[in-house]
Amino acid sequence: MSRWRTYSPREIEALGRSAPPLTEAVERVCPACGKKAVRRYLYDHDGPRRVAMSYVWCANCRRYASSTGPPLHPDFEFDDPGEKSAELRALRDKDLMALLDHLDALWDSGVLPQTFTPKR
Ligand SMILES: [Zn+2]
């Protein structure tokens, strides 16, 4: 399998502009290769400060980007496969390339995408 490469800053900007709402669990068009194959995974990371970690990657050209943001839990109920998988939790902490392989496989097997439900 080929290696994962980061999106360029310009591609990351384009991804930001085209980001669908969290409640829309769909693949979107990749700014690098043009295929509708961009997937995402988010979770709340408990550290000194609670932050949302977000990963987007293209299943076709294997580019990726990650970012952090405000925690998701106050606003959404959502499923995090990391809660049930020690393997996924371990990869999140230490092996980005293996994490991306794993997330892509989870999407192919139907564990991802996640379902986000706004809290009232
Ligand atoms: Zn692509």
How many discrete structural domains? 1
Helix content percent band: 25-40%
Spell out the helices and strands N to C: EHEEEEEHHE
**What small molecules does this complex bind?**
zinc ion
Account of the 3D structure:
The protein starts with a strand and ends with a strand. The chain has helices at residues 9-17, 86-94, 96-108; strands at 5-6, 28-29, 36-46, 50-58, 63-69, 76-78, 116-118. It is globular, with a radius of gyration of 14 Å. Helix content is 26%, strand content 31%. The chain has one domain (5-112). The mean pLDDT is 94. A 5-stranded mixed beta sheet has the order 1-5-4-3-2, with helices on one face. It is built from 3 helices and 7 strands; from the N terminus they run βαβββββααβ. The chain is an alpha+beta fold and 120 residues long. The structure holds zinc ion (ZN). Residues 30, 32-33, 35, 37, 58, 60-61, 63 line the site of zinc ion.
